[in-house]
Design a protein that fits this description.
Elements lengths: L3 E4 L3 H11 L5 E5 L23 H19 L6 E10 L16 E3 L11 E10 L1 H14 L3 E4 L6 H5 L3 E4 L5 H4 L6 E10 L7 E4 L7 E5 L4 E4 L3 E2 L8 H14 L8 E19 L5 E7 L7 H17 L3
Parallel strand pairs: 1-2, 1-7, 2-6, 3-9, 7-14
Antiparallel strand pairs: 3-5, 4-5, 8-11, 8-12, 8-13, 9-10, 10-11, 13-14
Helix pairs in contact: 1-3, 1-7, 2-7
The structure holds flavin-adenine dinucleotide.
Length: 318
């Protein structure tokens, strides 16, 4: 069977590589950074299609992924569990994501559940992937299927194609350089991990650009966010952003009080006007990148789309 090289070991590369190897293909991963150093390792990693286009496709991939995550949420070793997530919104905004959930997984929030000053929200039961467990879990699953991962930067894909490999591009922002795609750009996000003291409500306010705020309760800490700076390449967290995030999140959830900061991290969301998940014309390259703020949310749906494209290549070679 034709060998497959997956480029990248973030959430897109790992989910895709797992899907392909478990479908019987010989697969290897080549990656510039190991999983724990990718953007994916910084993510809050809750199911919510944020900054992912086009909306109809992102919703479909999110729905497909939701069902896969439900299976994983039953297994403690995956780091995936279902949580109640309050999505703050207002009339007139696109909330079509909620129509993708099972009817009993989402309802309008009650007034007493809303932070002061908010008029509307949805309480949704969604998957949360604790990245420190979930990414190693996926890597282990890939290795169990005899998958190999090599940490090295790829500077050209032609040699791989000449060796007969099908190339799957899951390089995120790296596609800008490797494939000359200038439409993919960073939306810088910072998170602040704080110590858990008491219960908090996980929630997001993503209504207005420049005012993103979210609180995600994990098993070992609370993740606070965020920032959404387009075209900012700074991968280092800043003290100014830490303070902005703390102030915003305290307004959302008074029970946070004066939290003890454990760690601040920044990552570059790979945004594109449209997620690219398709075979390239004329060569055996299948792209899967540009997932913006929703790489986890759409991961399994996109992995299935890649598998379908590869099955077409194998049946009808280019
Ligand atoms: C603060 C923050 C919070 C977020 N919260 C959420 C959330 O709650 N839910 C959600 O769904 N999403 C969230 N996201 C978005 C999510 O993290 C991204 O969409 C996702 O990580 C993209 O994954 P990826 O695998 O495509 O890219 P990446 O994780 O960036 O991985 C790219 C991979 O490609 C490799 N690579 C790049 N260039 C090359 C090359 N030339 N040769 C070889 N390898 C290469 C890299 O080394 C890396 O392994 C968040 C992001 C941030 C920053």
């Amino acid at each position: 069977m034709q060998p497959i090289t997956v480029l990248g070991a973030g959430i897109s590369g790992l989910a895709t590589a797992v899907r392909l190897i478990e479908s019987g293909f010989p697969v290897r991963i080549l990656t510039k950074e190991p999983p724990e150093q990718t953007v994916s390792a910084v993510a809050a990693a809750i199911w919510f299609p944020y900054e992912a286009e086009p909306v109809d496709k992102a919703n479909r991939w999110s729905a497909e992924s939701y069902h896969e995550f439900i299976k994983l949420a039953g297994l403690p070793e995956t780091g995936v569990r279902m949580v109640d997530f309050l999505v703050l919104t207002r009339p007139g905004l696109d909330n079509s994501w909620k129509d993708e959930l099972p009817a009993d997984a989402v309802r309008e929030a009650r007034p007493e559940e809303l932070p002061a000053g908010y008029e509307m929200g949805y309480m949704a039961r969604v998957p949360l992937a604790e990245t420190q467990t979930y990414l190693p879990y996926l890597l282990e699953r890939f290795r169990k299927g005899s998958g190999e991962i090599t940490v090295r930067e790829v500077t050209a894909v032609e040699p791989l194609l000449e060796e007969g490999h099908i190339v799957v591009n899951c390089t995120g922002l790296g596609a800008r350089q490797l494939f000359g795609d200038e439409s993919v750009y960073p939306i810088r996000g910072q998170v602040v991990k704080v110590k858990k003291t008491g219960p908090v409500q996980s929630m997001v306010d993503s209504m207005d650009k420049g005012r993103l705020g979210y609180i995600i309760e994990r098993s070992d800490c609370i993740v606070l966010g965020g920032t959404d700076y387009g075209h900012d390449y700074n991968r280092q967290p800043t003290e100014e952003d830490t303070q902005t995030i703390l102030a915003r999140c305290r307004q959302l959830e008074r029970r946070l009080g004066e939290p003890v900061i454990l760690q601040a991290l920044a990552g570059l969301r790979p945004k594109r006007p449209a997620i690219r998940c398709e075979k390239e014309e004329g060569r055996n390259v299948v792209h899967n990148y540009g997932h913006g703020g929703a790489g986890f949310t759409v991961s399994w749906g996109c992995a299935d789309e890649v598998r379908a494209a590869i099955l077409r290549i194998v049946r009808w070679p280019a």
